[in-house]
Amino acid sequence: MTTPPPLRIRAAGATHPGRVRDNNEDCLLIEQNLGLFGVFDGMGGHHAGEVASATARDAVRDAVRDAKGATHFVEREALEAALQQASVVVHAESSRRKARRGMGTTAVLAQVGGTNTVTVAHVGDSRAYLLRDGRLQVLTADHTIVAELLARGALDPDEARTHPYRAVLSRNLGAAPETRPEFCHVQLQAGDRLLLCSDGLSTFASHRAIEQTLAGAGDPDTTAKELIELALKGGGGDNVTAVVIEAGRKEVPRRTQIIRTSGANAWWSQRDLFLQQAAARDIARSPICAVLSPGEAVDIVAGNLCEAIYRDLEQTTGIHVWTYAENLVAGWLDQDGDFAVVRDLLDRLASAADAVVEHIGATHFDMGALLGLAVPRALLVAELASGGMISKRLREVEAQIVEAQSALAASESFSENVTVPIDVPRADPPSPAVARCLDAALELALADARTHKRPREDGIVADCLERAHKAARDHGGQLDGMLAARELFGTCALGEPAIAPLLDALDRARLTHVSAVKRAPGDDACRAAALRRIATAHRMLCSSTARIVVDGGSSVTDRHREMLEQISLLRRKVADNERRIQTLEGRYKTQPGWAPPRGEA
Amino acid sequence: MGRALADTFESLRGDVLDRLVGIRASIDEAYARIPDDVVREQFDVVLGKIAGYLRNENVEQYRSFVSRWAAMREGEGFGAENVIHSIVAVADVVARSAQRRLEPSPERTALIRAVMQVNAGAARMLVDGLANRLAHLSAQLKSGAAE
Are B20 and B90 in contact (CB under 8 A)? Predict the structure, then answer.
C-alpha cells in the first residue's frame, strides 16, 4: 500500500474578548511547522485566567517541540505528555501565588501527522469540530458536570440546557498536577476543515450557523474572523476564540495540470526502459557506483533520477532533481572525487533520458514533443544544483586557504604578504606582436593615468594597470584576481575609506587600458587579442575586489550599506565598459584579417 | 534554425525582458538593488546574443559571450551559482514566454529547444569552469597542508 501524499495544511485563528468581558482569558496556538494547533480558555480571578491559558499554551508548545526533536514521535503520546506537563506548570504557578490560586484552563489541541492523520486531545469544554462534505460534526465531548451527567443518563437534554452547573467543568488543566485528557483520531481528506474553539463560540452560535460559516468559500483566516463575528452577533457573552485548519481543498484539475500529469505518467511508464538504457550506457562502471553491484547501481542511481524527474514533471518543480544532483555532487566531492566523474555519469543518464523521450515520441508525437522540452528542462536543474554545490565548496576552500595563509602571516602586516599564493594555470604566451601591443598599451595607459594630477588616486590606477598588464602578459588574463585584489587592498592600507577610491581606480584603469589598446601599434587581430587579455585581467581583478568588499562588508553592518552603494555604482560603470568592449570587438571583427582570439574559438 | 527563428524570438524579446526584470529578485537578490533600466540592459545584452546565435548558429561565439558576461557579473559581486542561475532563467523565461504567446507549432518547439540547448551548454561550461577552479584550489590547499 502506498503512502498518501501529505495534504497541504493551512491554518488561521482569531480571538476576541466578547461584548461582556474586559479581558480575554482565551488564547490560541498555531505552530504550522510542528503541525500543532490549539485553543485554551483560562479561568481564575485577577487576570489569573489569562496567565493560566498562556502558561499552558507555552508549556504545550515547548513540550511538543522537544518531542518532535526526538527520533520517535507518536502524536498521542506527545500530546498527552504535553498536557500533563502543562497541568504541572499551571498548578505550580497557581500554588505559588495566592492571587492565582485555583486558576486553570481548558485545552483543545490538534496534532497533524505525516500520514494525514489528526490527533485531537482535549480537556474541558473547548471543542473540536470536523467539517467534511459540508457536514459539521463535534469530535469532542465537553468535560462539564452536566455533560457527564447527561452521558450517564442522569439528566435529559432539556434539563441539561437549563441546569445551573452547565458551565462547571469536570476536568481542566491546572486544578491539580495531573489531568485526564481525552483523545480522538481523524484521517484527513482533501477539503476537510477542522475547527478548534472555546465555548464562547459554541455557546453563542448555533451548530447550523457554524457549519454554514465553516463551509463558506473564505480562506481559514477569513473564516476564523467570520466565526468570531458570528459569536458576537449571538451576544458575545464570553471570550471567543476559533482556529480553522484546512486540509488541501479539492480542486478540479486544470488543463495544464492534466497535460502535466499525463506527461509525468508517460515518463514514469517508461521507467524500465530508462533503467535499461542507463544499464546499456554502463553507468555501473562509474567510480561513483564502485560500492554498488551493477544491478544496484542501475536501480539506485538511475531509478532515483527517474523518480525525481517524474515528481518534478508532475509538480512542475525542480526540487527533486535538484536534491538528487546536489546529493550526488556533494557525496562525490566529499570523497575527494573529481567533478568530471559526476559530469560523465550525468551525461550518460541524460543520454538514456533522451533515448526514452525519443521512444515515446516515436509512438506519441505530441507527448514526445512535450517531454522533449520538459525532460531536458528537468535535467537542467541538475546543472544548477551542481553549480550551487561546487560554488559552496569553492567558497569553503577559499576560506580555508585564506585562513591558513592568514595564520602563517599573523605577525606581519597584511599588505606585505601575499595572502593567497596561487599557482595560476597559464594560458599560451602572447605572440610577439600581441606582446608588443600589450606593452605599448600599458605605456599609453600609464601616461593617461598621470594626467589627472591626483597623485594618490593616480597611483592606485597605475597599480591596477600594472597588475592587469602583468596578468595579461603572463597568464593570458587569467590572473588570480583574489591575489591581485588583496595585494591592491594592502596597497590601499585596507582602510574602509579606501574602498571607494579603489573601486573608482579599478574602473578608471579598465577604461584607460581599453582605450589605450585602440592606439597601440599592431594590426586589428593583435589589438583584438590584446583587448581580450586585458579585459579578462581587469574582470578578474574587479570580480575579486568586489567579492572582498562584499565579504569584508558583511560583518560591518553600518558600513555595509555604503559599500553596497559603491558596488552598485561600479556595476553601472562596468556595464558601460562591457558595452564599450563589445563595440570595440564588433569594430575589430569587421576588419579584414580578424580572427577569434585564442581560447575563444 | 536561421532567420525565421530569430525573428520569432525577436517578437518575444520585449515580453521576455519584462518578465526577467520582474522576477529578477528571485534570480539573485542582488538584482533587486539594481535599477530597472540597468538590469534591463544587462539581460537585453544576453537576449541580443541569443538572437545572434539563432541567426548564425555560432554556439562558440555565444559561449564566449556568456563566459565574459558571467565574469562581469561575478565582478559585480554576484555569486557564481547565481550567474549560472541567471543564464538558465533566461532560457526558462524564453520557453515560458513562447509557450504562452505562440501557438503550438514545430517552430515554437524548435525555438524553445534551441534556446534551452544553447543555454544548457553555457551553464554546463560555467559549471565545468567552477569545477576546475575548485579542483585547482583543493589541490593547492592539500599541497599547502602537506608542507
Answer: yes
